[in-house]
Design a protein that fits this description.
The chain is mostly helical. Helix content is 71%, strand content 0%. It has two domains: 1-52, no CATH class; 61-159, no CATH class. The chain has eight helices and no strands. It is globular and about 60 Å long. The N and C termini lie far apart (55 Å). The model has no long low-confidence stretch (mean pLDDT 85).
Amino acid sequence: MAIVIGFLAQRTRFCTVAAFRDFIIIKDTHLLSGVISLLLAAFISNLILGQFNFSLQGQPIAHTNQLWNFGGMVLAGLAFTLAGGCPGRQLFLSGEGDTDAALFILGMLVGAGFAHNFETVSSTSGPGRWGPASVIIGLIICMVIGFSMSDLWKKKKEG
């Protein structure tokens, strides 16, 4: 089954970051239809299996601190956008031989190791000891990278 899903994801260029980028910039819904289809399939499957839970309460390995849940997802989305695509797409591209994507995957694995070993990872009891600081530092680093690589910043430096 995993091979079939991987094949379909690769052939359809499935990527959540690209889906929202295309929808916002050029109003193209082709990739977004795949994201919506995945969400609907997951929603229906969870309803059928009796696993649907609409809140953060009672989710496996999740805490209910909405500020740090949202902050962590903003950081993840910004980092994935700066990297050029969502983790799934990077995984598919690395399987096609894209070395940049392979380094992205390696970086995610190393980052997960750091998060677990240096108490930044969250648990059901709440954010990790250094989790909030890591989110703030990560957002600052990503914004510096994003702004310093933007065309607006480059024109300002030249002019």
